[in-house]
Write a structure and sequence with these properties.
CATH architecture of the largest domain: 4-Layer Sandwich
Number of helices: 11
Radius of gyration: 20 Å
Keywords: Hydrolase
GO molecular function, one term: hydrolase activity
Structural class: alpha/beta
Shape: globular
Largest sheet: 6 strands, mixed
InterPro entries: Metallo-B-lactamas, NDM-1-like, RibonucZ/Hydroxyglut_hydro, WH-like_DNA-bd_sf
Protein name: MBL fold hydrolase
Pfam family, one: Lactamase_B
Strand order of the largest sheet: 1-2-3-4-5-6
Amino acid sequence: MTEAELAGLGVHRIPVPIPFPQAGGPVNVYVIEERDGGILLFDSGLGSPEGHAALEAGFARIGRRFDEVTRIVLSHGHVDHYGAARFVQERHGGSIPVFAHPADVSKVAEAGWRWRDRAPLYAAHLARLGVPAETLAAVATEGERGFGLARRIAEVRPLEPGTILETRHLRLEVLHMPGHTPGLLCLHDRERRLFFSGDHLLEKVSPNPLIELGPDGRDGHFRPLLAYVESVGRMRALDLDLVLPGHGPPFSGHRAIIDALLGFYERRQARIREVLRDGPRTAYEISRALFPSARPGDAFLTISETVANLELLEARGDVVREEQGGLRRHRLAG
């Protein structure tokens, strides 16, 4: 299905530039025509000057106005997906309701948690995983820079899975697909076999399974890769003609992409087992073996990826963790 055919279904894609090359390209804002002539936005893009300009140009290109937006639905609580919601509200000139899954509301709401408040908890946890002080400083700087590209939203309403969003041409079912975040949402039109995936499935990039600490700083309350394997399996079972992702152009053949992605994770886990054959290692040491060229500022991403695969290996009984002297190490079981 071409973009022109999607426009015939009242769906328009606006790519918004972002400064995160590992994300897989510009983030997509989907403008979906409502029954009453208004607009539903699925994601809002990044809250940077370049992001705002891209949104304005995209609205002008499709002949729509910001005051026509009736609601904003967020796929998940990352800055490139919610960062411009306040800008859209201000350009609208009135009140636009914003919706997100309950598990991600605290990431985007004004009353939610802030990076500067949570950063010490993450620093302490990463130190337990073996991250050296200079790398911790780089991670803190990168986090502050990223969260500065979004403004929090005064009120975010919870959107429950199973809700049906009726638009001009589509009947979109809200699906909870945790993994990339605990509260990632996708939209599915069963009749037209369309699937708005957010960052749940991308054509050329694997979604980062990111470390999620509990309110008290403890880990383990959410294991992203285990959740992702389950939810992407549910997506694989769907009959789909087209996936409209959070980054990159729409694509088909979702089952082949999912199978390749799961194979990629299997190979990564095999590499981790290979590293551990030489003896116990911290997650940081394993991540350096997996990503030898990564910048210090990317350490949160690379360690998150490493830890998520270790959690899956632990769940399978292949790997055991050990805590000693304030450090966590992993070894092969048996």
